[in-house]
Amino acid sequence: MTDHNPTEEEDFEILRFSEEEEEPQERRKPDPESRKKKKRRRGALRQIALALFYLLLVLLILYGATTLYLWIDDRMAENLSHMGAESGETAGQETAEPAQQTDPQADAAATQDSPYRYTRADVDRAYELGLQEGRESVLAQLMESLAETTSVMQALRPLYPKHVIVASGGTFHFVRINEELKKCALVQEELVRDAQTGELSVVRDGETISHKGIDVSSHQGEIKWDQVAADGVEFAIIRVLFRGYGSGAIVEDERFDDNISGALANGVQVGAYVFSQAITEEEMLEEANLAIEKVSPYAAGVPIVIDVERVAGANPRMDALSPSERTDLVLLFCETVRKAGYQPYIYFNTEMSILFLELERLEEIPKWYASYSEDLFFPYAFDLYQYSEKGSVQGIKGNVDLDVTLDPFWEAVG
User: Fold this and answer.
1) Does domain 182-412 match CATH 1.10.10.10?
2) 262 CB contacts (<8 Å, ≥6 apart)?
3) Is the CB of residue 272 less than 8 Å from the CB of residue 256?
4) CB 323 within 8 A of CB 358
5) Neighbours of 116 (CB within 10 A)
6) Where in the chain is the domain with CATH 3.20.20.80?
7) In what order do the strands lie in the sheet with 200-204?
């Protein structure tokens, strides 16, 4: 229904009619001006009658809506009463008895007199009681989790199984899991950690199905690769270059040539990684092309990884990028490496992948995931798993990063 909104002219005509004095009742022939006035009066009367009709119609609609609401509310109360009566009868029947035939009229009378007839206040109280019990249950579960661990993150995660919880910038971020992305193939129950060495293996049906690996740089100093190979290391991802997070200068790893040649000479499969701080397409192409140039004399088709982890406690230049801009540059690196005949990989941790990259755009690119938690909580698929930064391997002085994979990437080479 559309309300009638009088124009200024119509308002004026109605006003004139209400204030107009009645003419004397004289027997005279109406002049044209008189006829016009009568016509205007009739028009105004019609408008008033139409407005009264609309008002009456609105009142009827409101009355009907109120009646319908009261009827629905009454039916809901009756349904609650029936439900309460049925639950009371069920609770009182502890043993299975043959069904008895009942009189419908008697049932109806019993329902009207039932002590289980609920009111709106009863429903509201039940709702509040449910909320209170739910809060108490969550608090009890949180208390139990905190009593078993000193990690707030590990205590929170079981309470939010449909979210990835990330601590970043002094804040907890709760990001809902994207069910359309590929999921992690590793199962917590299949991860077996050696109590003495801390090495992680994937054991399925009593058989170890994972492969042992490490990643190294000039920080490890001189490495005795024959001893590394003897310790069961099957693959090594070796840093080839990095860009300064403050200066932006590109630097080649001074031990790359020794490490890649030493690993290959002792049967250890290799890949290379670039620690990136590129913020333009030109810088990213410079990193990708230099990495290809450095790797090509030693191996073809091996992984070349872009490492986009954040620098803790610093103000790295790459942090100025938005997730979309960072993802654009990562895709440019990977496409450049792929066109050169190498396997592109992306290295990241939980914070980087969830908050600073657009994972849905990187779905088809192999991933190298880093997390040092005892629990495997990352929901999305990855190919290499860096699970420790404090590992120990023969032939290397000090700590070294430890990795594991289910898929031997070297079998795809060549």
Assistant:
1) no
2) 223, 225
3) yes
4) yes
5) 16
6) 182-412
7) 191-193, 200-204, 207-208
**Helices marked H in 93-150 — which ranges?**
104-112, 120-148
Asked if residue 336 lies in contact with residue 354, where contact means CB atoms within 8 angstroms, the answer is no
Token pair listed for 4: 């009638």
φ/ψ bin of 343: left (φ > 0), alpha (ψ from -120 to 50), beta (otherwise): beta
Q: Residue 87: what pLDDT?
A: 47
Q: CA-to-CA distance for 312 and 331, rounded, in angstroms?
A: 24
The structure tokens listed for 234 are 């099957």
pLDDT of residue 381: 97
Pick the closest to residue 337 from 282, 292, 396 (CA basis): 292
Question: Which two tokens mark 2?
Answer: 């559309």
* Location of structure tokens 């397409």: 281
pLDDT tens digits for range 154-211: 778 888 899 999 988 889 899 999 999 999 999 999 999 998 889 999 999 999 999 9
Residues with Cβ within 8 Å of residue 198, at least 6 apart in sequence: 388, 390, 391, 392, 402
Please provide residue 250's backbone torsions phi and psi, each rounded to the nearest 5 degrees: -90, 135
